[in-house]
Amino acid sequence: MLPTQLAKLPRSARIWCTTFVLIFGMPGTLLAADLQITDARIRLLPGDIPAAGYFTLTNTGETGTTLIGADSSAFDNVTIHQSVSQDGISSMQHVEQLTVAAGELVELAPGGYHLMLMKRKHPIAVGDEIEVTLLLDNGQQQNVKFRAGAPTTQ
Amino acid sequence: MRQWIIPVFVSLWLMGCGEQTWQTKDISGLMPPLAFDLVDENGNDVTADQFLGKSTLLFFGFTHCPDVCPTTLARLDAVIQRLEETYRDDIQVLFVSVDPRRDNPATLSAYTNAFGLQFTGLTGDKAALDELTRRYRVTYGYGEEDSNGNYDVSHSSAVFAFNEQGEARVLIRDSDPMDAVAADIKRLADQ
């Protein structure tokens, strides 16, 4: 079953080689084990109006982790945004990166940080699970399932 | 100790007799009565007097606002759903879009229907929106367009509440606790 070159190697070397390939060879599956994502949800709005994604990022690791973006096969465009309010006027700012210090958590919650998910690629219904890939500055990525909720979701 | 009993008793008694106060920001007499000349979500020209007879919650926003606008509207919906049915029919939420370029009547209608029967979408041309926002001393503005043609709209985040006669009563902010908002909306509907 193994490629001929590999089959010629001694058995112990073969095991090491296979293990090495399995651990390091799978693209995009280098999981950020120290980053926990909880309460991931999307608030759907009608038509093609952008949706907001919310979740809590907890860094259980020893070093800081920085979120630099997100992708989803269900949306054309996903960006990190922050709602800000000054003198009673609300506006939205693009967020280039969001760092979670070691042992800390950051909430992406209504009225603050959120994902803005634009241009649905297919219809999404309330209750659907939507996969979003979070991109980190060290090249790691993490796939997260977001639950789609109604417009009145808080 | 004894000399305190009477003053404490008297002040508690006076507090009990005092008129109930609003729990969010009281704007009675500080803001003008409800008046506007806009287009509703069916494309009809409407004026504020057509909306008298119910308590009105007025909010400025835009539909392409994924976070703040639906959060505020969801809070209002939650409060309205907590009311008894008789009160629910006495409340209307007017969502005034300050982004008429993207928010045509069809988009507004789909948007407000997603929140409930009490929600109605309104918008207007720049002159009508400028007049209304100036009347309530708020501003709005447009951010730069990105490569996808998307742009942000800044808008007032508070909700102006009026009684059935269209007189300004309270300003509800996102930081107000839900119980305070619920108490004031119930009081408005009850008046």
Automatic annotation (TrEMBL), chain B:
Thioredoxin domain mapped to chain residues: 25-191
GO molecular function: metal ion binding
InterPro entries: SCO1/SenC (IPR003782), Thioredoxin-like_sf (IPR036249), Thioredoxin_domain (IPR013766)
Keywords for the protein's UniProt record, in alphabetical order: Copper, Disulfide bond, Metal-binding
Tree of life domain: Bacteria
Disulfide bonding pattern of the chain: C65-C69
Residues the entry annotates as binding Cu cation: C65, C69, H155
Statement: the UniProt record of this protein carries the keyword Metal-binding: yes
Family named by the database record: Belongs to the SCO1/2 family.
Protein name per its UniProtKB record: SCO family protein
